[in-house]
Design goal:
Two copies of one chain form a homodimer. Chain A has about 400 residues and is of the alpha/beta class. In chain A, about 40% of the residues lie in helices and about 15% in strands. In chain A, the strands form three sheets. In chain A, strands 3-2-1-4-5-6 form a six-stranded parallel beta sheet, with helices on both faces. A three-stranded antiparallel beta sheet of chain A has the order 7-8-9. Chain A has a two-stranded antiparallel sheet with strand order 10-11. The mean pLDDT of chain A is about 95. Chains A and B meet through α1, α2, α5, α6 and β6 of A and α1, α2, α5, α6 and β6 of B. β6 of chain A pairs antiparallel with β12 of chain B.
Chain lengths: ~400, ~400
Amino acid sequence: MSEGILNGVRVIEGSAFVAAPTAGMTLAQLGADVIRFDAPGGGLDWKRWPLTSSGESLFWSGLQKGKRSIEIDLRSDEGREQISQLITMPGEGNGIFMTNFPARGWMSYEKLKARREDLIMVVMTGNHDGSSEVDYTVNPSSGFPSAMGPRHSVVPTNSLMPAWDTIMGGLAVVGLLAALRHREATGEGQLVEIALSDVAFATVGHLGRIAEVQLEGTDPVPDGNYLYGAFGGDFLCRGDRRVMIVALTSRQWKALKVATETEEMFDAVAAATGHDFSDEAGRYLGRNLIRELLKPWFAQHTLDEIRASLAGTGVSWGPYQTFKQLVEEDPRCSEANPMFSMVEHPVGTYLTPASPLNFSVSGRVPAKPSPHLGEHTDEVLAELTSAGEQAAAP
Amino acid sequence: MSEGILNGVRVIEGSAFVAAPTAGMTLAQLGADVIRFDAPGGGLDWKRWPLTSSGESLFWSGLQKGKRSIEIDLRSDEGREQISQLITMPGEGNGIFMTNFPARGWMSYEKLKARREDLIMVVMTGNHDGSSEVDYTVNPSSGFPSAMGPRHSVVPTNSLMPAWDTIMGGLAVVGLLAALRHREATGEGQLVEIALSDVAFATVGHLGRIAEVQLEGTDPVPDGNYLYGAFGGDFLCRGDRRVMIVALTSRQWKALKVATETEEMFDAVAAATGHDFSDEAGRYLGRNLIRELLKPWFAQHTLDEIRASLAGTGVSWGPYQTFKQLVEEDPRCSEANPMFSMVEHPVGTYLTPASPLNFSVSGRVPAKPSPHLGEHTDEVLAELTSAGEQAAAP
């Protein structure tokens, strides 16, 4: 069984909600020893929804899996001293702290660095000036909710998926690993900072949307489930299920026409109307017409029939699935997928993902359970005492 | 000026669309020398929207910034040999290949590894079995589109933001850096694999949604712009702008009541109706009522007035902004933010983000321009020739 590519790295995590816990969980899934500290009785996300019927948080369980959990009272001097010692514990793989808490006072980089010169500290904030912000307040400002959802909607559409938090969690790990590699080469530690709104607005820039405003003056409006800049749209099947069909490339467009037996029809319609379906811009501009012309084929077939018809054709498509349908119908979300296994957690036994990353030499750490809150308090404090005694030994 | 924490690392990128280009760009922003190869005349994403009025892709520009671009004809034996040599070039920081192309034939890990034993190769696929899939087909299957958008909508709501691609781009860099650290410690290279649907479905699991289905049998339905499991909702302001208001914590809820002068009203309504607004579950269950009771305050104030009223109060909120409003009104998306600078790209000069990661010792590489397609073909081939001559020298 793989111990993971980050075996030997220990990260102390002071966090709540999505971004920082995601970063810690990502590290734990790669084999790092991630120790999350919480106030006795649990932090701000201890009861975050979804909950079980008995009031346990499935959210907390999902994001703490594979970590060790300790309960420490940070309002006490003793608790602060314990966490400071833990963060700055001697040892090559130690001295790494990741947090989305305000990095002030005893928890500041300066104070902790004074105890371990080569400390690596990753601090996640809401905005680049250190002020706070959450995914649900950054997202409305990003521009995306105003450009998605039903056509002609006057109300913007929020995303249910906390994408910015999740992206920031990944980038925080990128920062941590880059800093660790630097420390291993030079002996130097450092402070790594990342802000949620920077992550969101940088992504807006990467995807060309800032340039579009500045160079073209345009501002996109909601366009339903159509793909932007190529053909893609949703279709209702016989039996009330829906599918998403995408034709980004010429090859996908050709495959779609062949599978739905609409090649001749599209040629005739192009000739009759002057529409040019031969490149992605033409297919984007003709997206309403294309969808209208394809609707009957989907309406005549059930999802199962469509699945069978499209298999191996090169058509790019996917079924719409609720979470329940995903879990109950999709073999990619089952133990047939080597990433997933059934794991017994304190809140119950459920299908649990390991890291999506698989390493041919270092392997993949099997999915691990989430801890009981405070499960490892005694164990970790004993390790701390033992490390202190070793350091004091003659 | 910082050369970046990954200065000295060279990554060859064979890619198109979002995920792999995002990974390469993330590396380039940290100072790696990222060389993207494309077919002469450009790859599949060379004209991806948004476009300028003269037909240049702002998408391509955004995702290739800071990279070197080479045009190589992969249908020719010479082109394949050049890319193989480039990927397996001698040198400590070399021998790293990242791709979302089918890793078959001459481009397989085995073939390339035969030329450089310690090769690191990161391969991004659609599904874990290697079959293809794009963000726009994975997302409908993830469950999120069926659980978001307007209440009572029978049509699912796609996200405009390619979240899965962007998350996978970050995780691919995590995998690459972990493998690089492993190689630097042991001399061993390896194949790192990651699949888009694994990234999506693992995230569904991390957020507790798989457990919710399996343990509770529930399947959430679209709930407009309400936050899940706590209070959060959108409000129309005087003058037609909208804001998102969030009260995840008790402190935020208290701040919201104080700022809107509704404390007494909420106490009276709680007493009269039996609603319990004192914890997040109670506020979630009472979200319609809470929003209704707060609406008048927002309707009476303009966005500017609300901005002024809420500043420094601890209320968690954000304005809805279109992409244009983000660029024109939000100081966080301007040169006032150290992450952003105006950069001259081949397609025009626009506000361009550097990495959201800032390193206190290694610094942050200033935002760089995107290349002209093939701008570095001659330069890179000359480096390859020179490396070959050095290797052949007695």
